Amino acid sequence: MAQEDTVNDAMIGGALTTTADVRIADAARMMRDADVAIIAVVDDDEELIGVITDRDITIVVADELDPSTTRVGERMSDSPVSVGQNDDLDAAFERMLEGDVHRAPVTDEVGHVWGVLEQSDAARHGEGRRVADSGGQHPR
Q: Where do the domains of the chain lie, and which CATH numbers do they carry?
């Protein structure tokens, strides 16, 4: 019997991380420079405490908050959907679909961030995996 694929088989390694005290403007520049749409927010022990996305930054601007004084911790999602490196890949994608997220930080057993899993990785990694459309909905 073939071994099941794990998140580690499909994830993008080397996730971008920051801390909650970083200014939104600096986080936006980090995203631009790394060409990513999500940054994992970690504590002093390098454990995942949240995520900040390009959409979160768009909302800061739309709400007319000052990105040079607003901190990541004020606008991050502090209950992010995350997946484990050794999780079954199909189960991880299902968790992402249920959480209506397109990207999820990949963590080890203690919560350190090792990478990012994107819904687009499902298509890249293998046929037959369900991927939500741009509206985030999927058939049940």
A: 7-125 (3.10.580.10)
